[in-house]
Fold:
Amino acid sequence: MKYFGIYKIILTFVIGNLLIMGTNYYRIPKAEEMEHRKNVLIQQVTDLDLSVYNIECNFHKPIDDQWSSENPWDTFTNGMNVQLGKRSGGWKFCWNFHKNKYYSNKEELLNFIRDGRIVDEYGEEWDVNEFIVMALNWGEPDGLVVNEEYRKKERVKGHGSFWLDSEKYDDLIIDGLRVSSVTDFC
Structure:
């Protein structure tokens, strides 16, 4: 019984951190698209030229230009697990636009989301419409956004880091959405 106090402290810490930690969300293809991709992969593997040259280059074939290439597995997995963004306590939802690779505005983003399935970083699948409502409303109306105003407030508090010193890390606002200025974030 004397250990109950320490367990209560640990449990309070864990639950408290779960409430403030962020969660990443991903778009994965629907089952029908995966079945199609699988059939294409099977056909590509069946048709592989097993020459010394192709084996040596890991079956990479040129794609867009002479410098870019992919093999059948790359084709199969390309765009399979696309990070959409992250929610974090106190912040507006932060979208990842991947340098406009899959979408470049809100309408294209929502179409991309609706054309697939949504999973969080814990492997839980979300209803697409419930995810959209959650993400669009997360942190509204006054959630944090990294911008000049935010950087100034943090400096007054004595906080500082490399990203607070430069506007190049400021969030972008695209069609009213908070979009990360970087594409690699967790």
Remarks:
- Residues 4-20 form the longest helix (17 residues).
- The helical segments are 4-20, 31-46, 52-56, 72-77, 106-114, 128-137, 148-156.
- The chain has a mean pLDDT of 85.
- The chain has seven helices and nine strands.
